[in-house]
Design a protein that fits this description.
Layout: H1 11-18, H2 31-37, H3 40-43, H4 47-63, H5 69-88, H6 100-112, H7 114-118, H8 125-160, E1 166-171, E2 174-180, H9 181-206, H10 225-231, H11 247-252, H12 255-281, E3 289-290, H13 309-332, H14 347-369, E4 371-372, E5 379-380, E6 384-385, H15 387-395, H16 401-410, H17 415-432, H18 441-447, H19 455-459, H20 461-467, H21 476-491
Antiparallel strand pairs: 1-2, 3-6, 4-5
Helix pairs in contact: 4-5, 4-8, 4-10, 5-6, 8-9, 8-14, 8-21, 9-12, 9-21, 12-13, 12-14, 13-14, 16-17
The structure holds arginine (ARG).
Family: Belongs to the lyase 1 family. Argininosuccinate lyase subfamily.
Protein name: Argininosuccinate lyase
Pathway: Amino-acid biosynthesis; L-arginine biosynthesis; L-arginine from L-ornithine and carbamoyl phosphate: step 3/3
């Protein structure tokens, strides 16, 4: 080998370079490895966030004097054009370019030349991807939050029309005490209200800027991270920029994705519980409600069937979302600092969680509350309530037995004795096949002489409901207060 040898790249090295890599590589990737490592076919959905992040980064690079005005202008122009190309579907995504970031950057350089190559100054794909996922998720959280309000609005709306409708409340799925159907629905409003609050909290930590961490250690360029945070709207309620404070943590943290998926799992668990009730309520044995035909399907063999496919699928999809939570949390458990390629696996579970949640909430808002007519503002097509069937069911199963005990306590009996006395009364009623309210006054007086004619008011479903007139109770007076409070909150979209 001659002393004055000028370096000549091998054919393999040229091939590797063509694929976007440095001369360090002596052979190209096999097609299988390319497919195995590429993420472009799923992470391309981050393109808006990727371009927003790049535009903010380029603007900042110019502001701090790293990028000339001409270069910055060319980058902004190029990225704008790429946005339009992607939007209109003419952009060519290339597997060879691995991911959304390299695809967009390569196109930018093809469009504007050297200025495109300057964009990546002071940046790494590690802080870039972390920023993209956070920006994307932040906006998705806003959409999901709005849908959670829609579902609550639908539930409150149905509740407001069913305050006086009584159904049996269950414990152990055994008839326990009568409750208002509105009260039952408002229980789910409380769940979805907490879900919305939880998502707002997740949003706060998601909306924090990793960019500027570079590969892992920060960068030697004098970047203005606060400016980038402000440009991207990564600020708190007072406009203070929210910036990841440790570069190693910034590029490797996926807590926000796990938290989001955990919050999403709880939303789905609530949806799943509601689904289970809808399915029970619309079964022939209950017949409490009907849902519109468009949310059900027929059977290919049994002509009489109308199956509650939508609530059943929602119940099933809950497992899928909880599975994504398990996937993400396991993804992180063995990772040393800082970025590892494992993190590329955060995207598909996260994307699928968002899609599942969004579709489910949209369907539920409509399935429960129907659609609002743009002209009249009236809702139509939500669940249909069979008040008579609910009330009939509440009259079976001695739902007012506790009320008889409470009645005796008010007459001076210790509660435990009253409880025992009523158990005897229920036994006799069962033997005769009648409700407690159908026993004769003389029969009831045989259990306790303090019982008078006013007992029948206590034994009635309505009397039982009205008696529970304490905060959080099922008395219609309480429910009206709750509905008014929810309506006021939801009108403010909070
Ligand atoms: N596609 C990668 C991901 O989703 C981008 C970051 C790649 N960084 C790297 N050093 N290979 O995580």
């Amino acid at each position: 080998m001659s002393e004055n040898h000028t370096y000549q790249p091998s054919a393999n090295q040229l091939a590797a370079k063509e694929h976007g890599w440095s001369a360090l590589f002596t052979e190209p990737m096999s097609d299988l490895v390319k497919r195995y490592t590429a993420s472009v076919f799923f992470d391309q959905r981050l393109w808006r966030a990727d371009i927003a992040g790049s535009r903010a980064h380029a603007h900042m690079l110019h502001t701090v004097g790293i990028l000339s005005a001409e270069d910055e202008a060319a980058i902004q122009r190029g990225l704008q054009q790429i946005s339009e190309e992607i939007e209109s579907g003419v952009f060519e995504w290339q597997l060879d370019l691995e991911d959304v970031h390299l695809n967009i950057e390569a196109r930018l350089t093809a469009l504007i030349g050297d200025a495109g190559k300057r964009l990546h100054t002071g940046r790494s794909r590690n802080d870039q991807v972390a920023t993209d996922v956070r920006l994307w998720l932040r906006d998705e959280i806003d959409g999901i939050h709005a849908l959670l309000l829609d579902v609550q609005t639908a539930l409150v709306d149905v509740a407001s029309r069913n305050i006086e409708v009584i159904l049996p409340g269950f414990t152990h799925l055994q008839v326990a005490q009568p409750v208002s159907f509105a009260h039952h629905l408002l229980a789910y409003v409380e769940m979805f209200k907490r879900d919305a609050e939880r998502l707002q909290d997740v949003r706060r930590r998601t909306n924090t800027l990793p960019l500027g961490a570079a590969a892992l250690a920060g960068t030697s360029y004098p970047l203005d991270r606060a400016l980038v945070a402000k440009t991207l709207g990564m600020v708190d309620a007072h406009g203070v920029p929210q910036i990841c404070q440790n570069s190693l943590d910034a590029v490797s943290d996926r807590d926000f994705a796990i938290e989001f998926t955990a919050a999403a799992s709880l939303v789905m668990v609530h949806i799943s519980r509601l689904s289970e009730e809808l399915i029970i309520w619309m079964s022939q044995n209950f017949g409490f409600i009907r849902i519109a035909d468009r949310f059900t399907t027929g059977s290919s063999i049994m002509p009489q069937k109308k199956n509650p496919d939508v609530p059943e699928l929602a119940r099933g999809k809950t497992g899928r979302v909880v599975g994504h939570l398990m996937g993400l949390i396991t993804l992180m458990k063995g990772q040393p600092l800082a970025y590892n390629k494992d993190n590329q696996e955060d995207k598909e579970p996260l994307f699928d969680t968002v899609d599942t949640l969004r579709d489910t909430l949209r369907i539920f808002a409509e399935m429960i509350g129907g659609q609002v007519d743009a002209q009249t503002g009236q809702r139509a097509g939500g669940i249909t309530v069979n008040a008579a069937a609910m009330e009939q069911a509440a009259l079976r199963g001695y739902a007012t037995a506790t009320d008889l005990a409470d009645y005796l306590v008010k007459k001076g009996l210790p509660f435990r004795d009253a409880h025992e006395t009523v158990a005897h009364a229920v036994r006799i009623a069962i033997e005769r096949g009648v409700d407690l309210s159908e026993l004769e006054l003389q029969d009831l007086q045989r259990f306790n002489s303090a019982i008078e004619a006013d007992v029948f008011e206590a034994l009635s479903l309505r009397g039982s409901l009205n008696a529970r007139n304490t905060l959080g109770g099922t008395a219609p007076a309480q429910i009206r207060l709750q509905i008014a409070a929810h309506q006021e909150r939801l009108a403010a979209r909070a």
